[in-house]
Amino acid sequence: MNRHTRRTTPTATPWVRVPIIWGIIMATVTFSSPILPKDISVYAVAGDRGTLLALARKNDIPIPCQCQDGQCGSCLVKITALDPNGPKAQALTEHEKITLSVNGKLSKEILAKAEVEDIPPPYRLACQVWVPDANILVEFSGEPGVEIDLRR
After folding, report:
1. 0.90 exceeded by the pTM?
2. How large is the average pLDDT for residues 93-112?
3. CA pair distance 26, 114, nearest whole angstrom
4. What is the annotated signal peptide range for this record (predicted)?
5. Where are the domains of the chain?
6. Residues 106, 121: contact at Cβ < 8 Å?
7. pLDDT digits over 80-98, tens only?
8. pLDDT of res. 7
9. b vs e for 6-43, b when ≥16 Cβ sit within 10 Å of the residue's Cβ?
10. How far is residue 128's CA from residue 76's CA, in Å, rounded to a whole number?
11. 36-40, 69-73, 115-119, 132-136 — which one is most confidently predicted on average?
């Protein structure tokens, strides 16, 4: 195998595969939206401290964003873990807590589960959440601050 060959390594369950490129463990982030012609999967360095919004922009994925500071809520996304163990919860910023609460996407119960039980909330702001070290599905509507319609 040469240094340009991509290979995958099985994790605990055989149907989930973690890509390894040049010896670096990668997370697969799949973006899905009605405004995309098809779902787009990209590799990201597992544990990288870049935001989902930065990853989307780097790959020409048009997640709406107005402030990039967690205050406007325009980059609302729904994140679903594709690995059985899923990613660990990441701390929500104060701006994100307020914005998600005002928009009805963060209840006290969901916040408590995130902070106490390390269970990630389903809705986040792409400008505030880091790329996790697990395979995830990121769904967005394509309209600023509008929840993805899961009935499609």
Report:
1. no
2. 94
3. 24
4. none
5. 7-139
6. yes
7. 999 877 777 889 999 999 9
8. 39
9. eeeeeeeeeebebbeeeeeebbbbebbbeeeeeebebe
10. 10
11. 36-40
Write the single-letter amino acid at 140. Answer: F
- Name the CATH topology of 7-139: Ubiquitin-like (UB roll) (3.10.20)
- Spatial separation of the C-alpha atoms in residues 26 and 32, rounded to whole Å: 19
Q: Which residues contact 140 (CB under 8 A, 6 or more apart)?
A: 31, 32, 33, 63, 64, 75, 76, 77, 78, 126, 148
Contact of 97 with 74, CB cutoff 8 Å = no
State the sign of the Cα–Cα–Cα–Cα dihedral 141, 90, 59, 79.
negative
